[in-house]
Design brief:
- The protein is of the alpha/beta class.
- The protein has 11 helices and 12 strands.
- Helices cover 46% and strands 18% of the residues.
- The strands form 2 sheets. An 8-stranded mixed beta sheet has the order 5-2-1-6-7-8-11-12, with helices on both faces. The chain has a 4-stranded mixed beta sheet with strand order 4-3-10-9.
- The longest helix is centred in the middle third of the chain and has 22 residues.
Length: 298
Amino acid sequence: MHVVVFGAGSLGSLLGGLLARAHEVTLVGREEHVRAVRADGLRLTGAVDLTAHPEARTDPPASADLVLVAVKAFDTADAARALAAMDDAGVVLSLQNGMGNEETLAATLPWPVLAGTTDFGAERTGPGVVRCNGVGAVTLGPPEGGESPAARRAGEGFQEAGLDTTVTDDMPRRLWTKLAVNAGVNPVTALARVDNGAVLAEPLAGTARAAARETASVATAAGVDLDPEAAVAAMEGVARDTAGNVSSMRQDVEAGRPTEVGAINGYVVEQASESVPVNRTLAALLDGRETEKSGASN
């Protein structure tokens, strides 16, 4: 199987390196990272100790059997346009944060688009080097739910490379559960500049739990039955399992990069028919930071 990873940052590179144990893999990423991988291979450290030698380039190849999309949510439309230039992408799998990515991809691309979640922890520590902060699992399936041959093929590809993978017919609930987790953990840790485990105790726990509960209520109103306390339990479980990790949103804030808050807390606000004050406040605080930074640079 030829797997293309479009968006070879921390998570994309980690999964690409692991998939390279069994498949032909092409990483599509930024020039500095690509140059390092071409010269010395992709070095995985931390919970995984591996040097892989995937192909690396800055634009997608002509064809693939499976494309993993791992760009930031705000880059999804650009990714779709770039992938549309391929002759054949086979199956496209979004492993991104936030909601709405699959719809954006499917609106442009003619190939089956799947949704996926993963709890692997990854951090790029330098060009060509990614630290695995925690070995996890991958879950994937059609974003609207149900089964599909494309999902089965993609799942088999992950399993052949030794990744713990579940192909499910219940992706809508899983996507909303992931959104509840991210809505509680990511903005709180980013704003407070703390590791993930800090949301398990006050003064931050109440805010993180409230964000998760609000997300579950919006999911239920949208037709996806997600119990608020189950959402809180999922959020706390991830925070406990990744207690020492730095969330991706905190990494973005500390690096001065835009965050994915619009596709996480902002999405909850947009979809809500009733007040969601905690998600609205978290989104506003991070949006305000980015607006001020953008204004200062102009």
